[in-house]
Predict the structure.
Amino acid sequence: MIVRPAVVSFAAAAVCIPLFKSLARRFDVLDSPSALKEHGRAVPYLGGMAVAAGVAAAMAGYPGAMPDELRSLLIGTSAMLCMGLADDLRPISPYVKLLFQFLATTIAISGGLHVSIHVLPPAVNFILTYLWMMAITNAFNIIDVHDGLCSGAAAVIGVGLLLVSVFTELYDKTFVTVSSAALVGGTAAFFLANHPPATQFLGDAGSLSIGFLLAGLAIGESYTPGHSVGLLVPFMVFILPLYDLVFVVILRLMKGQSPIRGSPDHVAVRLRKMGWSDRKVLWSLLGLGAAGAVLAPGVVFCPLPYAAFIAACAIAAAVGIGAALARIRVT
């Protein structure tokens, strides 16, 4: 259930990567250097299309009937892929992107996929679903500012969701396991072309659709078999994109800037300003993400005092690192 979709997706994506790279060059779908983009050459987009092809190939062999939750999530993901591709071809307003994300989330919810915290009213759960889906989607778009970071983070988070789904037996979450494995395979294949120095970029088609799919799969998990601290598990699994999102939004608001407008204030950019190499930045951040993914299942099942201690340490470390990073000048 895990190996087959991962292998199929990896192989299909590996075959499609050079094809889409060639198409990007032929039709001039390139990411050129600018004030906010420090790569020194034009790099082909459409990497996200190769990942999508890999995931689609794996999901074509889904075991049994596909549940409504997964079907609606994949339709919403496809909508995000198309919107992101349109943005790669011709930039779209951030507000239009947010509208598309809202509509895609509505599609996912229509199939029964939504946050379910039993102590909260249904209306609050639906609001939390919109906030979570749109936050994670944009978080992945935000971290796609460094070679290999978005594709690597997606693979790591996919593994984290796999670990939680394998160790959680409260519900039949086959769709989470199979879909996560497929996404791990596709993003791992693309990571080989995307790590520093990148020869191809995901583009918005990739970062937005990958973030949307992972956000939905996270909702399909169960995190609280023993205690409510388990609700922090998805935040630990998604620590890398969420951390950069919160960090950037807070800094921009403190400066009186719009949180949805681009600026060179990301964690990866600040680490590069410290003199770190591209590879050091990448592997350090992926190591942080891997630590969160590995520790997450332990928080679900370990006794409450230990779970609370792990969560408290993670929060304290995040605040301390953020304070240190905020002091680094990026302009």
